[in-house]
Design goal:
261 residues, mainly alpha, 2 domains, three-stranded antiparallel beta sheet, two-stranded antiparallel sheet, 12 helices, 50% helix, 8% strand
Length: 261
Amino acid sequence: MADRDALAGFAAALRDPASAPPSGVAARPGADVARRFAVYRNNIAVGLIDALRAGFPVTERLVGADFFRAMARAFVADHKPSSPMLFAYGGAFPAFVAGFEPAGGLPYLAGVAGLEAARAEALHAADAPTLDAASIAGALSGAVAVDWLGLRVGAHPAARLADGDHPIVAIWAAHQETASEPRFDGPWEPEAALVTRPDQAVLVRALAPGPAAFAAALLGGATIGAAGERALSIDNSVDIGRTLIALADAGAMTRLGGHEP
């Protein structure tokens, strides 16, 4: 228990810049313990900020290095890693960006950050075989509507959806490092990002609100029929069969089956 309390005190001192070094911390003879501990505390913060910069390069490009570093430092102050794997750090960053008042003039920023977080999660997700579009097409062509509308699918472990009230995929694509003059001149319409990892490559596809609602419901466990109703309530022109095949083509599913009881 004493060791656990000591570790908890050490972690608390790392989180609070105003905190004195915890008891038991020593420095070389003649060195200022508080100053050395402050350097250690700052090095940890810098490491976490650099991890965020690596995971959210387009988010940083949209606001500039100085703004991003200040935003990341504010995040790091209240969000310490829950895993020793730094690539997993930053899952809560998009929500933080959404509430970060100085970024209020960029309402699309949190959506782009969410897309980048989804890409990181997809990259490190578990492997699984994908359900190909040909299998979906064959199953649908051989079943009556009442049969296939009651089917469910298995979501691929790497499949992610990043919601956006703005054209987040187009903005993200326009601000890649390879773009000589980053800019976005397309229509300002809401879109979600479907992130998948078929054949070990992370892919990003834009989904309009209707197909995005279908994908979210279907990959969340709803039947094809229920997911279709959700999509059609948003956009009555959505082609459910075509959207289902597109999800399979993107590598978002692992199986088709399981009728409703």
